[in-house]
What does this fold into?
Amino acid sequence: MTEQLRKNIEDAEMHFFMQADPDIIKQYLDECDIEGKNLTKKEVLLKRIKFLSKASVKKQHDSNLLAIAIKYKEAIEKNTSKPLQYLRNIMASKVSASYNNSLDKLSQEEIIELIKDQNLINLMDQLEQNGIDNEAKI
Amino acid sequence: MGLITKPKFEAQKLLREIGMDDITDIPMDLLAAGLDATLIEEPLQFCEGRITFSPRRSLIKINSNIEWPERKRFISAHEIGHHILHKNMDLPPDTFSTVNIVAGFEKHLKTGKQEIEANEFAAELLMPTSKFVQLAKGKPFSPQLLKDIAHHFQTSLTATVFKYLECDLHPLCLIMIDNGNIKYFKKSSKLNGWLEDRLHMSPPPESVAAEYINHNYDFVYKEEEKSQLIKKSVWFAIRSWEEDEDYYEYCIPTKRYKTVLSVLWQK
It folds into this structure.
């Protein structure tokens, strides 16, 4: 996770707490019967809010990355001319692996699909590393 | 009650970490995003779902052509299971030494039990045991109870009845019939009966399952008729010292896959 993304998540959490309607928060806290009586429930609620805030920001961020990454068709389709050899290389690197629910029937076409997914995810990583605004470097 | 396995433990740990009793209120793509995985739906030609890893994230693709939302949720939870359990998996050296790399990979996955682990994780994530027991305990087993629980967790009836059996709330026997033949069965330890001889054979002609197969997997019974009274001897071998008993049989047919899941329990 980049520093920028971490900062975005923290900002979103802060934004959530500052913008939330106090009546809604109070109603929710009342329903949970936490008003300071049961700290465990309060902690649980905070965990949930923190997770959902992070998830929302991350989902938007990934959606932006994906929208940019899928424009690079050439990069997504590279290494698909010799799929078996390429798959062997990825697996040998032990850096990544792909799983498929119908492996019994894995065909050349399916391996190509897996390679495209691998290229897509690598592209998303690269975009994230360079910063989305700096996509020209890809 | 079933044993706590690593996948179940990891699912329960995850729920604790995100402060939730269950995930019925959360869309699966949002859950995945919070766990550093990107989940998208698109038409997939060869599978229901797949996952690809990189050092920074996982990419989960779910087949948008899957008809049932419950199935989509299960496949999503299954792939999230791979993300949590197998992301940094070290593949054994012999995976790469085989001539046919694909066959080697497949063998590793099948024998490595990752698929089973991902299924166990998914079942616990979608239907946490404590919440499941809370919903089902003290209520008599019935098709309507299963339907209510499945509705609550947004899971299929099949996944729900397997979870019910695992929680050992009432003695049950589940028999999976695939393309007219008995593929496997699973039963509570408290339910006595011998079924072994029937494996790989067609269901008994007097069974409700046979009725469904004869009706081309269409729904034969509705509402309160779903539990059909049968004799224990229809499915189980009765020993000389035993008396025949009344049992119920309830079937969950799947026309597309030509399967019937038969649920048996004592009256």
About this structure: Chain A touches chain B through 51 residues (CB under 8 Å). Residues 94-104 of chain A have pLDDT under 50 and may be disordered. Residues 13 and 53 of chain A are 6 Å apart (CA to CA).
